Description:
There is one protein chain. The protein has five helices and 14 strands. By secondary structure, it is mainly β. The protein folds into two domains: 12-111, Immunoglobulin-like (Sandwich), CATH 2.60.40.60; 124-224, Immunoglobulin-like (Sandwich). A hairpin with a 2-residue loop joins β13 (202-211) and β14.
Amino acid sequence: MLALFSATSAGAEQRHAGPxxxxxxxxxxxxxxxxxxxxxxxxxxxDTLSFSLxxxxxxxxxxxxxxxxxxxxxxVIDREVPCSGQPVCRQTADVVVRPLMxxxxxxxxxxxxxxxxxxxxxxxxxxxxxxxxxxxxLLFLIQSAYDVDGPEFGVVGYxxxxxxxxxxxxxxxxxxxxxxxGFDVRLVLRQALDRERRGFYQLQVSVIQLNSNxxxxxxxxxxxx
Length: 225
């Protein structure tokens, strides 16, 4: 396996002075090389040294070759398991070099992939609205979709799609940012209802997701009224 990223700091002496910082993209095969700790610590390649990870938590994601000091992934890393919804995912590992008893702190940032789609808690809801409801009233709350990927691939909006022109003339979405994060999504009545002319509407709400700086519609929720 080839290393995906090298250490972010330059020069062995600078790296040796503080933590070593690396990045690796999630979902790479087990055994993907992250770094050469021996090299980045400025240790001679002909010295007889032994490298090991100190904590079981670090070994859950990483492994280090005892003789060479090469750090690699111990399994396929799913970023959403340790860092669901977090903007940055950093995992730490402490390496001990024997017999020098030299301790090195390693920080590995797990880079997010857009490998999950946002999903609504329910894909279909049925609501009942009185014919006497006045225009511009908020009818009901639509539960927000959730995306376990990081914010860079998160939900950026919602829209009402599909249906006839009469449907879009009768209803609209009210989408506001929520103080707790995310969005407050509600269906709003545009014009008065007439049950004798039409007694049933089926609407579809879609999520707009940020994907590589483009907005794409990715998930749907049907609402029957």
